[in-house]
């Protein structure tokens, strides 16, 4: 029997949903949707990037945008900022971030909150006039395609731009493939840094070389079935296929169609592509692709560059690029400047000012990274000093602290109905506290600390040096917000996921636990040893002792229930109940 979600999608999904959204918007907005049809329409709305916010925020929506591999062309960020300034206003200011801002996502795109349905037609008109859209940004479909944010600008072994563009224009826009069994993530990168993180995508294309008829050919190896969430992370498995650049699209499309046709539509907790790949196995998938979906003869995998991967790979800074923060060289002799937005939240006025900088000092184009940061590109040498001296770069520096540089955070209870804890405001406070209370050796350039509000792991805690996942715990007889703390995650040549060293640590004791752990790292590391290397060399029992929870002077607001912190929510048992009975919160839909 098909899952209930399939029934809700039946009869209307994909492109045709847009007309219904416009109709509801023009006839009263939220109030025009029959109350007994909320679940059906909210499920369908997600295809167009429109998510109803959590209980207690009735009539407000989040809109997720889509821009393949993080490219924002001139004026697009400015337009997004102007839309946020005018429409993304909540009933009460967030105490940490104010009102009217954008969130940068881990899939190189943007989210807008506090939108009202009756404003959506005008919002779409403004965004789409600048070339920005929200189609296929959510729901059971192909999500925003990730790639090296500097493709076409920085050095690439194989050019990935044409493949990314074709995936965007031909595959994601094919309405016949809009209704997938679950969300589906695609990545492709031509650089040898590993920044597209193919290991945690449903299908990933990595640069490779293969000798064919005596000639060394450049192309891509293919991996499938990677992903996080539900405490069941899996690194993508090599499909043992090498493709020339001109054939890569057909293989990508073939696997999308295969999953679309054969993927599990009954059990949503077991129907992501990673479970499909595990159930079928690589040999059966290759054979089915060749027999039913691919017109050319596929070749076995070539030699990849994974041993060179440095992006979030836990390797020393001198080994190579581990994010896109800072000043770097472009192949045309100009520079890119990556800025640190610690938890990915950017006030509308700052986004507009950043767009002004991109116009004044670069080409106007901005790239977004998988670490929730913006990159200004095409900056000439003679403009570099003036850009770096701009006041806004004191707030979002190109040379941040190790904690700010490595921080990521998901949406949390502020808007997400499955989250167990508040995330972004708390992480922002913790970063300031760590800057003031933890001293790291001078050669430690970053500590990658990722915070997810629940086990769905949208904040990618499983791939962090220090991963935090929101939980609930009892303290002094009361249920309070808490963290599970894990260490030693990262991608790279051999992806590893965190090992849990403390669980259900009350939120006011977690910063002390992390400080104790970092102080032990600083005291016991070998010279030049990164945090991930130190964790691998240190026994689990010792790490548990080092990560001792401790109350400190850190102020931990919203201890009892962050979703009641600064604006009213409806009472909801869903998230707290999931934590109390040890069951996992469901993955993001």
From TrEMBL:
Protein's name in the database: Nitrite/sulfite reductase
Organism: Natrinema soli
Segments forming a coiled coil: none
Top-level EC class: oxidoreductase
Keyword Cytoplasm: no
Family as reported in the entry's similarity comment: Belongs to the nitrite and sulfite reductase 4Fe-4S domain family.
EC number from the UniProt entry: 1.8.7.1
Nitrite/sulphite reductase 4Fe-4S domain ranges (all copies): 139-292, 405-549
GO MF assignments: 4 iron, 4 sulfur cluster binding; metal ion binding; sulfite reductase (ferredoxin) activity
Domain Nitrite/Sulfite reductase ferredoxin-like intervals: 57-92, 96-129, 330-391
Entry-linked Pfam families: NIR_SIR, NIR_SIR_ferr
Keyword terms, alphabetized: 4Fe-4S, Heme, Iron, Iron-sulfur, Metal-binding, Oxidoreductase
């Amino acid at each position: 029997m098909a899952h209930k979600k399939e029934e809700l999608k039946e009869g209307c999904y994909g492109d045709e949903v847009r007309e219904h959204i416009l109709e509801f918007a023009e006839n009263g907005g939220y109030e025009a949707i029959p109350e007994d049809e909320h679940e059906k329409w909210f499920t369908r709305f997600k295809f167009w990037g429109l998510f109803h916010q959590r209980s207690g925020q009735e009539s407000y929506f989040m809109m997720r945008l889509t821009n393949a591999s993080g490219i924002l062309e001139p004026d697009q960020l400015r337009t997004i900022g102007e839309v946020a300034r005018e429409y993304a206003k909540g009933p009460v200011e967030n105490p940490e971030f104010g009102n009217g801002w954008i969130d940068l996502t881990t899939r190189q795109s943007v989210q807008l909150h506090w939108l009202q349905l009756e404003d959506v037609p005008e919002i779409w008109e403004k965004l789409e006039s600048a070339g920005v859209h929200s189609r296929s940004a959510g729901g059971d479909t192909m999500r925003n395609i990730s790639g090296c944010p500097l493709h076409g600008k920085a050095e690439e072994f194989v050019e990935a731009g044409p493949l990314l563009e074709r995936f965007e224009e031909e595959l994601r826009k094919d309405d016949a493939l809009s209704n997938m069994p679950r969300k589906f993530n695609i990545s492709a990168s031509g650089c040898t840094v590993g920044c597209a993180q193919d290991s945690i995508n449903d299908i990933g294309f990595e640069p490779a070389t293969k000798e064919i008829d005596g000639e060394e050919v450049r192309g891509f190896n293919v991996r499938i079935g990677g992903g996080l969430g539900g405490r069941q992370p899996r690194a993508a498995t090599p499909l043992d296929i090498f493709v020339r650049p001109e054939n890569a699209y057909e293989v990508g499309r073939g696997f999308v169609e295969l999953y679309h046709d054969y993927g599990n539509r009954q059990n949503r907790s077991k129907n992501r592509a990673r479970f499909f790949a595990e159930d079928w196995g690589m040999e059966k998938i290759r054979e089915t692709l060749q027999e039913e979906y691919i017109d050319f003869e596929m070749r076995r995998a070539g030699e990849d560059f994974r041993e060179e991967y440095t992006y979030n790979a836990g390797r020393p800074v001198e080994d190579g690029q581990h994010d896109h923060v800072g000043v770097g060289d472009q192949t045309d002799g100009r520079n890119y400047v990556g800025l640190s937005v610690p938890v990915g939240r950017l006030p509308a006025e700052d986004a507009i000012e950043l767009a002004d900088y991109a116009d004044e000092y670069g080409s106007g184009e901005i790239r977004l990274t998988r670490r929730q940061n913006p990159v200004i590109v095409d900056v000439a040498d003679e403009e570099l000093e003036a850009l770096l001296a701009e006041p806004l770069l004191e707030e979002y520096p190109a040379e941040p602290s190790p904690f700010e540089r490595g921080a990521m955070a998901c949406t949390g209870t502020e808007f997400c109905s499955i989250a167990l804890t508040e995330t972004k405001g708390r992480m922002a406070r913790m970063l300031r506290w760590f800057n003031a209370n933890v001293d790291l050796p001078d050669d430690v350039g970053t500590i990658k600390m990722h915070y997810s509000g629940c086990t769905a792991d949208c904040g990618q805690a499983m791939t962090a040096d220090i991963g935090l996942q929101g939980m609930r715990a009892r303290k002094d007889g009361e249920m309070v917000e808490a963290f599970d703390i894990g260490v030693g995650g990262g991608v790279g040549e051999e992806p590893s996921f965190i090992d849990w060293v403390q669980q259900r640590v009350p939120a006011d004791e977690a910063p002390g636990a992390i400080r104790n752990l970092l102080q032990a790292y600083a005291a016991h590391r070998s010279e030049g040893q990164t945090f991930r290397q130190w964790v691998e060399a240190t026994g689990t029992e010792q790490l548990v002792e080092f990560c001792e929870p401790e109350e400190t002077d850190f102020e931990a607001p919203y201890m009892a229930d962050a979703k009641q912190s600064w604006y009213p929510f409806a009472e909801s048992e869903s998230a707290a109940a999931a934590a109390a009975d040890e069951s996992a919160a469901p993955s993001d839909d």
